[in-house]
Amino acid sequence: MSSSQVVRDSAKKLVNLLEKYPKDRIHHLVSFRDVQIARFRRVAGLPNVDDKGKSIKEKKPSLDEIKSIINRTSGPLGLNKEMLTKIQNKMVDEKFTEESINEQIRALSTIMNNKFRNYYDIGDKLYKPAGNPQYYQRLINAVDGKKKESLFTAMRTVLFGK
């Protein structure tokens, strides 16, 4: 098996593991999970798909658009040669090896299995402090949108801290 095929197979394993990774609870413009899936799908030779499973085709410029760009610019896209070499030197060319992808697979699997959370367990003293045992649970409920405080309970929390 050639090294590029081994890298593709490892990237496929990583994509499968990333797809099992839970989506963010709070929707962001860019998600770690989505960016990494798209990145390693290219390495694995898999087509990019959206949330519904439809394949996303990369939009390539048409021949007329390319001709228009060339006709409008005096140099290569209006940039001088020095600037192009600077840009090319700054561009990151990702070279993946089987070992580097396997390291990422191991790191992601330890995160997903809560290995370090279980190893360094801190107990209930920190999660439920004696002064305000429901504090963290209320925060989590507020973030998840499960339980909303009424005006009265919010004022009580502000005034008395509990």
Radius of gyration: 25 Å
Averaging pLDDT over every residue, what do you get? 79
Structural class category:
mainly alpha
Number of helices: 9
Termini separation: 63 Å
Largest sheet: none
The SSE order reads HHHHHHHHH
Total domain count: 2
Helix content: 55-70%
Strand content: under 5%
Would you spell out the secondary-structure blueprint of this structure?
Elements lengths: L2 H18 L11 H13 L18 H10 L8 H10 L7 H15 L2 H5 L4 H4 L7 H10 L6 H10 L2
Protein architecture, described:
With 162 residues, the protein is mainly α. The protein has 2 domains: 3-58 and 95-121, no CATH class; 122-162, no CATH class. It has 9 helices and no strands. The protein has helices spanning 3-20, 32-44, 63-72, 81-90, 98-112, 115-119, 124-127, 135-144, 151-160. α1 packs antiparallel against α2. It is found in: Mitochondrion. The modification N-acetylserine is found at residue 2. This protein is involved in processing of the 5' terminus and the intervening sequences of cytochrome b pre-mRNA. Its main location: mitochondrion. One of its GO terms (cellular component) is mitochondrion.
